[in-house]
Specification:
- The protein is an alpha/beta fold and about 230 residues long.
- It is built from nine helices and seven strands, in the order αααβαβααββαβααββ.
- A seven-stranded mixed sheet has the order 3-2-1-4-5-7-6, sandwiched between helices.
- Strand 4, helix 7 and strand 5 form a beta-alpha-beta unit.
- Helix 7 crosses helix 9.
- The chain starts with 5 loop residues before the first helix and ends with a strand.
Length: about 230
């Protein structure tokens, strides 16, 4: 009976660890910026896991029937679908990842065809819209990845109508319930991690008013809203 040499066993173990590390890095890259093809799995997973979080966050705002709405970092497109059901106005989505744009368009194909939804490839740092266009801007599980928070908040303020609202919804934040185990992941993703005080300061310094911060402590969720001065 042939016995596998010890060095071959050790080599196999090293190769297994290397493959796991490669997959972990790849998965992290896809979570941060899904590609057009392989990223489909990750954006579908986001649609599933973020749905209840989104529903909770949206209970803290009023959406009128004629609202023009922008969803930042539209991911798999589920939030756009929810927003389109709440208004007869136009709903736009933007994402900087090709995979997310493709998935959002596919998820909302009928709404896109009907002219109710439009999804664009763009960054929060340079939104392809005129000043004072939107009644509401939503950002679900995406603020972590914004490249320049202070200036990005100003860019959002630019496209909001006077009196319009920005709502940020997240399932992880500094000193929240899940912070202990999500913080290492956020570091790997090179993501922003803001606490309650950080959010209030960020909104205030950008010029937002009527800032409200709500926490669902049992789940570790946070919702932050602010308005553009009328």
């Amino acid at each position: 009976m042939w016995v596998i040499p010890t060095f071959l066993k050790e080599l196999a173990q090293v190769l297994n660890y290397a493959l796991l590390a490669i997959f972990a890095v790849y998965a992290i890259t896809q979570v941060r910026k899904p590609s057009k093809w392989a990223g489909r799995f990750f954006v579908s997973l986001m649609n599933l896991t973020h749905s209840n979080l989104t529903d909770w966050g949206l209970t803290h705002i009023s959406i009128e029937r004629d609202f023009a709405i922008l969803d930042l970092g539209c991911g798999g497109g589920r939030t756009i679908q929810k927003l389109a059901a709440a208004t007869q106005g136009m709903v736009y989505g933007v994402d900087y990842a090709d995979g997310s744009v493709a998935a959002s368009r596919a998820k909302n194909a009928q709404l896109v065809e009907a002219g109710r939804v439009e999804i664009k490839h763009a960054s929060v740092s340079q939104l392809p819209f005129p000043d004072n266009k939107f009644n509401l801007v939503t950002a679900v599980e995406t603020q972590y990845y914004w490249p320049d928070l202070p200036n990005d908040m100003l860019e959002i303020l630019r496209v909001l109508k006077p009196g319009g609202t920005l709502i940020i919804i997240a399932e992880s934040y500094k000193q929240g319930k899940n912070d202990i185990w999500t913080r290492p992941v956020m570091k790997l993703l090179k993501s922003n991690s803001l606490g309650v005080g950080d959010q209030r300061a960020l909104f205030s310094s950008a010029g937002y008013i009527d800032i409200q911060i709500l926490e669902e402590r049992s789940k570790g969720w946070i919702c932050v809203t602010g308005k553009k001065p009328a």
